[in-house]
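To: structure subgroup
Subject: Chain for Friday's discussion

All,

I'm putting the inputs and outputs inline so they're searchable in the archive.
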Amino acid sequence: MTDTAISVQGLGKNYIIGHKKEGDFRHAIGNKLRNIFKPEASEKEVFWALKDIDFEIKHGEAVGIIGRNGAGKSTLLKILSRITDPSTGRFEINGRVSSLLEVGTGFHSELTGRENIYLNGTILGMKRAEIKQKFDEIVDFSGVEKFLDTPVKHYSSGMKVRLAFSVAAHLEPEILIVDEVLAVGDAEFQKKCLGKMDEASKNEGKTVLFVSHNLGAVRAFCNKGILLSNGEIQYFGDINETTDKYLYSEDAFLVEDLRKFEGQLNKDDKLLYENIELLQDGTPVISVNNHLPLEIKISFQVLKRIKGFQIFFDFCDGDGSVLFRSMHYEDSTKGFNKPEDIFPGEYKTTATIPANFLVVGNYSIVIHSAEYGIRKINPSEGLRINFTIEESGVYQRTCYPMDRRGKFTPFIKWDLQKENIDINIYR
């Protein structure tokens, strides 16, 4: 038997996108007639979701697929799961595949949880006796035994994910394909799922393809990675190198030149980001001196009134895990104020992170804005600034240079006092 689980050669997928022409009713009728008599006159665009994809995955490898929204990750998994056909190229899969791509995929909403377990197993090519043998294990892992005889249409999204993953992971697949769907489940179940996938890959020799925006989970679980950008592979190799290349790529939004990202910045009709900078001593930086305060300066234009305006950032480590969140209306003495409405005009805001706060390493700040309790302001995934904190030499004068454990390293005030004790009693 070949040791190659998945082989992809020159894979591509395109879609035809139609563009609506603006105008009144008369123009609409005219355009319709022109399209009938001259089809070539209609405005259509060929969009390549994937283009010239080549890679090979061995049996037993756990591969993380990462990239921005729209990079082509889900399209690739749908092709490999045989849900959609490629436009160009070919792929070969050696082994039984089980896929978990969207909430409720493969479930019949009118059937009960029990019936859907047997249905999914049959679709995967398993005999009834095999499914019956695994049935109790599936139900126990999912934690939905109380609702097993309830139609799936009454399940919450989390319950559907629990049952779907349990079925996919336990019905003896040789290749397990999992999309971002696990993000729907609670933290405890996500941890349980990652443990199950880790066991399947390392102990049972199964191949796993895992798409997630949680880079910490991807790094912890996968040994290889595929970085996709605009439907093309930017990197395929070691998972740590893959995630580093993503975090420090234009796709992850390096804000050294915002003009490159005008298409992303101008999506909202109420707010327009004009500039975002990291500053130290008034100078823009990407490499940060840990011994100096760090300023995050955001310039933006409000085009229409925004109710309950919020602008905030998530401060993330090198894995993309959020260390803390800070909002523009918080007050160090009073706590949180109430978000207020903001009116058209030019605005600037600056947040300052104190010196000697974080250890040396790679970090990112993700800027968000919102109408409180209503919606996130585009782009919904936020604007990411990546940077590195470098050693400033401040610890070189200590007895233990660089021996500051953890992520946060603030200088804490200590007070050592000699008590009036007769030390002779200890001799």
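Points worth raising on Friday:
Residues 254-397 form a domain with the Coagulation Factor XIII; Chain A, domain 1 fold (CATH 2.70.50.60).
The chain has two domains: 4-12+48-250, 254-397.

D.
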